[in-house]
Design brief:
There is one protein chain. The protein is α+β, with helices and mostly antiparallel strands and 160 residues long. It has 4 helices and 7 strands. A 4-stranded antiparallel sheet has the order 4-5-6-7, with no helix packed on it. A 3-stranded mixed sheet has the order 1-3-2, covered by helices on one side. α1 packs parallel to α2 and α3 runs antiparallel to α4. The chain is elongated, with a radius of gyration of 18 Å.
Length: 160
């Protein structure tokens, strides 16, 4: 990974905030886009990976992403936000696109894995289908379950 100084990360973060006056940027514990309040919540940006994540959240804002109704829709929105960050935003801030693309690939793999884990039947382990948001059904043993919306905490599945 190319050496990036803390000063350049700080300056780039400040420039991003200036460039998007329609977005509220708020310091918080996790990266999150809220379409309701037009707010990107983020921890203090002190490394290049966090800067990439900030660009990703700006991607959600620029694409006007709102709530999702299924895991597949969430994955599409995540893919689109990363694609926007890697194809549009990266050139605005002289960030090496290969590094940002690797972060995007890693993040998308993590979402795919999370979605797969949610879809596993708690009774027989087969992959089920999502019938509605967070509600799954197994085609093998007919078990139904609800998964929590855990993206930043432990995944739980509850049999119905």
């Amino acid at each position: 990974m190319a050496a990036t100084t803390m000063q350049s990360i700080s300056l780039t973060t400040k420039q991003i905030i200036i460039d998007y006056p329609g977005i509220n940027f708020v310091i918080g514990d996790v990266f999150r886009w809220s379409s309701e309040s037009q707010t990107v919540t983020h921890p203090a940006i002190d490394n290049i990976e966090q800067l990439y994540q900030l660009l990703h959240e700006v991607g959600h804002a620029q694409l006007d992403h709102k709530d999702y109704s299924s895991g597949a829709e969430l994955l599409r929105m995540e893919r689109d936000a990363w694609a926007y960050a890697t194809s549009v935003l990266v050139s605005n801030y002289q960030i090496p696109d290969s590094e940002l693309r690797q972060s995007a690939d890693d993040a998308l793999y993590s979402y795919q894995n999370w979605l797969h884990q949610r879809s596993l039947c708690p009774s027989c382990g087969a992959v089920g289908i999502e019938k509605s948001k967070n509600n799954f059904h197994c085609l093998v043993c007919s078990q139904s379950w609800k998964a929590n919306d855990a993206r930043s905490c432990q995944l739980k599945r509850y049999k119905k």
